[in-house]
Amino acid sequence: MQLDDKVIAITGGGRGIGAATALRLAARGCRLALIDLNDEALAEVAGQCERAGAAQAATYNVNVSSEPAVERLFADIGSDFGALHGLVNNAGITRDALTLKVRDGEVT
Predict the structure, then answer these.
(1) What is the value of pTM for the model shown?
(2) Looking at CB atoms within 10 Å, which of 11, 13, 49, 79 has the fewest?
(3) Among 28, 38, 79, which Cα is nearest to 60's?
């Protein structure tokens, strides 16, 4: 798949899986919209992405659990990049590291 100059948004892009995905896509020449709540982590990953070959790496400090904030975010990405070709919807919080819980015999 040809990814040069494709605009990809990555939520949770400041660390972990999001940062690793960003670096992988940067090496393929993507233009990246990195989204996270940590400005320092975003700046570090954006710099790494540019050094790895990203055509562009912009950062956005946005809480993606807020629908109005997400609507503004994607309007900003559209304005900044002129297009959006893909989304890595990675942001999330697991406070106790469990993704599946059973209570009283039911999965919650």
Answers:
(1) 0.85
(2) 79
(3) 38
